[in-house]
Each structure stands twice: as C-alpha cells, then as structure tokens.
Amino acid sequence: MENSEYRYRNNARTQSGRPRQQVRSANPNRNRERTVFTRQYDFALLFLTIGIALFGVIMIYSAGYYTASLQNNPYRYVKSQVFSLMLGIGAMIVVSMVDYQVFMQKILNTKITLVHLLYILAIFLQTIVLVIGVDLNGAKRWLRIGPIQFQPSEVSKIAAILFIAYAVYQKRRDLDHFLGFVRIMIYMSPLIFLILLENMSSAIIVMGITFGMCFVASKKKGYFFVIIIAGVLLLAAVIFFGEGFRLARIRMWRDVENDAGAFQIRQGLYAIASGGLFGKGLGQSMQKLGFIPEAYNDMIFSVICEELGVVGAGLVILAFLVLFWRIVVIACHAPDLFGTMLCTGVMIQLAIQVVINIAVVTNTIPSTGIPLPLISYGGTSAAIIMVEMGLVLGVSRQIKQK
Questions:
Q1: Does residue 193 contact residue 210 with C-beta atoms inside 8 Å?
Q2: Alpha carbon distance 172, 65 (integer Å)
Q3: Helices (H), 199-299
Q4: What one-character-per-residue DSSP string does 345-365 give?
Q5: How much is the pTM?
Q6: Residues near 61 by beta carbon (within 8 Å), at least 6 away in sequence
Q7: Residue 371 gets which letter from DSSP?
Q8: What is the pLDDT of residues 13-44, one digit of tens each?
Q9: Residue 2 and residue 370: Cα distance in Å, rounded?
C-alpha cells in the first residue's frame, strides 16, 4: 500500500515538481477555443451624421436661395456649406482613425498633454479675436487667416469637452463633492469669461457642457440640484430687476405679437403655423422671401416646419434623437472613462443646441443666437461638429466585442 501510494503521488507531479493541475492552469487555452475580439466602427452613426448634414445642405439651399439671389450668387450659401462639410468629413474620418487616448499623452516628459495645449490654444484664440477679430453685425466673433475665416468659440467647445473629459478621468471621485466641481469651474472660468465677452450664446453652451459632464461623472447629485435652484433664482432676478438688451429680449418674448423687436420670431411663428401637418412642399416657403431675416441660419427650423410640416419637423427631431442614442450606446461601452466622457460631452453640446434652437424658434424661451447643429448655415460650426463626431467614432473603434 505504501509503495503504491508513493507511486501515485510521484506520477501526479511533473519533472519540474509542480502538480499536473497547476501545469494545466498555466495554459488555460490549451483545451478550449481561442476567444477572438473584433473592433466595432459605428457606421450607423457615421451615415446618420452625414445624412443630417446633407439634409441641412438641401434646406440651406431652399431657405437661402432668395437672399443669395439678391446678391447675384444663388448658390453662395450652399457652396460655402458644402466646402466646410467636405473639410469636416475628411477631418472626421482622420480623427476617427486615430486612437483618442493620444490626447492624454505627455509631451516631452512633462505634465502637459495635447489636451492642455488645445485648451491653451482656445484661450489664445478667444483673446486675439477681441483685438483683431472681424467685426460683423457689431460683434467681433470671427478670425480671418488668409482666405480662411472661422469662429474661435467653436474651437473652444471641443477644447472644453476634451479638457473636462481629461480632468474627470484624472480625478473623478473629486466630483462626488462640491469642491471638486468648484475646482473644474475655476479651471474653465478663464475660457468661459473670454467667450462671454465675445458671444453669450456660445458661453451658455460651454457652461452647459461643463455642468452636464460634471453632473454625469458625479455619483452624488445633491449639490447639483442646489446649483440649479440657485441658477433659477438668479435668472428670475435678472428678469424682474435687470436692464439692457437682455431684459429687452425677455420683454420681446413675453409680448411677441406687439413688440417691434420680435419681428423675426413673429415671422417664424407665422411660418410654422402656415406649414400645417405636411407642409407646403420643399422650396415653397413664403416667409423665407425676405420676411424672416437670415432664414437659412438660426431660424431654419421654421422654414422646415413651413415646407415639410409637423411631420417633417418631427422626423428631423427623431433623427437627432437616434443620433443621441447611438452616442449614448458608444459612451456606455467605451473602454475607459476618458472615452465615456468624450462621448458625453459631444452629446450634451448637440442636445443643448438642438433644444435651445427649437425652443427659440417656437418662442418657448427668449431669443438667443444658437444654430441648429449640422442643419443651420455655418461652416465653422459644421466642420467642428464633424471633428467631434470623429472623436465619438474613434471611441467606437476601440470597443472590443466577441
């Protein structure tokens, strides 16, 4: 018995002296199928983005044809928008093929990353536009470099998204406390202040991006609701005790039928009302014939309602909802927190612009100049949004599935 037991124990060991069971565990894939992971590229998001942009080109042609014809160039706005979209789509594809984590890489063994450089560039551009910017309609919002003219505020939006995503990635737990949110607001305050000096509408978007991304990242939401209540009270104080052009806009909003300054919103409401359920037909809008100032820009949704009706406007909103859903899916499956926050920031920016633009056109809130993403005329905005969608597609490309 003792010899047989000795032989059993001896056979249970290998020449290295380890039990056979341990040898098998060192090579777990020896007797099982090898797992193969594939990278996912969200073509649905790609085609949906391009589809909305192409629809925007059609509507810009329809809404801006009359105004452009008065300038002896019927295709002026369409050509400019198509050129910007071509650049934007090319940039989107290139950005989507680059590992988005490259933005977090250190430069020359310092603490500075590409995220920091882009943030510093945004502050620089917002500063010089106040000094040497092109003055259009009484505001310096454009920079001209040779034949290229762009709005620095659009660059600042993508810089804000990348910077906040990186800050959250580094110290997410800090946002579970109010001081963590204050720290990020201190970091963002120089950029927000400079944008506010140039364009209040863009400042609202950047503040919304900052608040929204911090809200999503934090596990404790209580102090955010306190901030919201304080913001509502501050807004109420501005409405009842404020003065200047902001108060004038609130008065226009409250008396849109009679206030002379509410002409644009009033004509937009006439366009929405005359569209009915199915609209007058593409290209058949009457309000775009000089009644709605710059109908191809911020007020383009009213032309959509007039020409395509409630059904067409509803389909546009549905397209944006599907776009947001795809971004949320990518954010939920992102390989790291940085990728999740990038997608979150892009979605928050687009959602803010869609909601505010439609709310202004329908006179739900006081007027402010925020375009409808990918549809309103604006080359800089369209190109930058395409780059942002490239970041989201880049995150989707890093998602691994069996």
A1: no
A2: 49
A3: 200-217, 222-241, 245-254, 263-275
A4: HHHHHHHHHHHHHHHHHTTSS
A5: 0.86
A6: 75, 77, 78
A7: P
A8: 444 444 444 444 445 444 445 544 456 778 89
A9: 89
